[in-house]
TrEMBL record:
Belongs to the metallo-dependent hydrolases superfamily. Hydantoinase/dihydropyrimidinase family. InterPro entries: Metal-dep_hydrolase_composite, Metal_Hydrolase, Metallo-dep_Hydrolases_sf. Transmembrane segments: none annotated. This is Dihydropyrimidinase. One of its GO terms (molecular function) is hydrolase activity, acting on carbon-nitrogen (but not peptide) bonds.
Amino acid sequence: MLVGDDVTVLDATGKFVMPGGIDPHTHLAMEFMGTETIDDFFSGQAAALAGGTTMHIDFVYQSRAAYQRWKSWLRRKGALMINDELLLEGLKKCKSLGALAMVHAENGDAVFEGQKRMIELGITGPEGHALSRPPVLEGEATARAIRLASFVNTPLYVVHVMSIDAMEEIAKARKSGFFNSYIYITCLLC
């Protein structure tokens, strides 16, 4: 290809070329547990575009039974949290269907204790949310989900990763060699 001296040519052989980022897990105009997300599709996409994200895949909210098969919650004790037995069942089902298992990993029992502690201390504002769930709890739940996925030999997608502890567990699993081009772990950072 002939180009002028003022043109920079980038070799993209073997690469994916996209006009912007893709957010594979958004919650736009979604009602959830008595609340609704602040962004609708217009404002959410406008905000994403300002940050370089040109496409999003909005999350489809399923029934509780579906969560036990597709997206597993290890958090929200008494609401959406599942135990390890149900997580294993869901991982096995995803493997049998060739589906990608998704998990939002927090130690729900320990977070519940942290929430009670915040209330006892009179910390009931937004800061209590972060204080009730220190990074070590997300790291522990992420490590547990990864180990159970490796036990079942199925891919895992960890969503809403918010801590260094969880990211380190994901990086360690990716470097371990167990997760390869056929069995892998990926995550969505918040």
